[in-house]
Design a protein that fits this description.
The protein is of the alpha+beta class and 228 residues long. It contains 7 helices and 13 strands. Strand 1 and strand 2 form a beta hairpin.
Length: 228
């Protein structure tokens, strides 16, 4: 008798539950949002991706929109002041999983002051340091606009997938035997395809694409070219 009642209860639950769930299911909706190729440009020529507007959205906006598992620190190589960054070690973006790095607007004087007040420094890969901010500086960082976004997807991309999702690039720059940059200046996007490692997607404002992405790439390419 008890078994029969349990079966009836499960059947009733199966009939009633769909009326309390959103149509289409929440998982499907989430998988169609915040995808890396969903880039738009606002009326002030600022790029919008992952629900964030470069040059306007802050770390606090990212934390609210993408999740609270956001870490903030100054990331510095030896003999460098470093950059103020927020990052998600692993974040689902639609059906893509990856590491997301949010580079904040940089003020050398403010970063130097933050380093002096920092709680501690931890070594990351190689000699790179992660400098942990004082709580007051952490609160200031939360209100700082995001300047650029980098995504390292967990899945490997190939050229066919890249073109299918993002379209044909305006330009290709071969940085080395294994690295090719696919440039989308109208979207403020540089995709680095690595045949021996992880790919990298770099998002900046379209108006800053030449100075922040293309010009440095061409300069490095010229430096690496053998003298004739």
């Amino acid at each position: 008798m008890k078994a029969a009642l349990s079966v009836i209860a499960l059947v009733l639950l199966a009939l009633i539950l769909p009326f309390f769930l959103p149509s289409g299911g929440p998982d499907k909706a989430n998988m169609e949002q915040n995808l890396p190729w969903q880039i738009s440009i606002d009326d002030q020529s600022r790029s919008q991706v992952f629900g964030l507007t470069l040059g306007r959205s802050t770390l606090a906006d990212a934390r609210q929109h993408l999740g609270k598992e956001l870490e903030v620190a100054i990331i510095a190589s030896p003999d460098e002041m470093g950059s103020l960054e927020g990052y998600y070690a692993q974040l689902p973006l639609g059906f893509i999983l990856g590491r997301l790095i949010l580079t904040l607007e940089q003020d050398p004087d403010k970063i130097n002051a933050m380093r002096e007040r920092a709680l501690k420094a931890e070594h990351m890969e190689s000699t790179t340091k992660k400098i942990i901010l004082h709580p007051e500086d952490l609160a200031r960082a939360e209100q700082t606009p995001i300047q650029a976004i980098s995504l390292i997807p967990s899945v490997n991309l190939d050229e066919a997938t890249l073109v299918q999702r993002f379209g044909q690039p305006a330009e290709r720059i071969q940085a080395s035997e294994t690295l090719t940059h696919y440039l989308y200046p109208d979207k403020g996007l540089d995709i680095v395809l690595d045949t021996k490692g992880k790919e990298l997607l770099q998002y900046v404002q379209p108006g800053e694409f030449e100075s922040r992405i293309r010009a440095p790439l061409l300069a490095r390419q010229k430096e690496a070219a053998p003298a004739k």
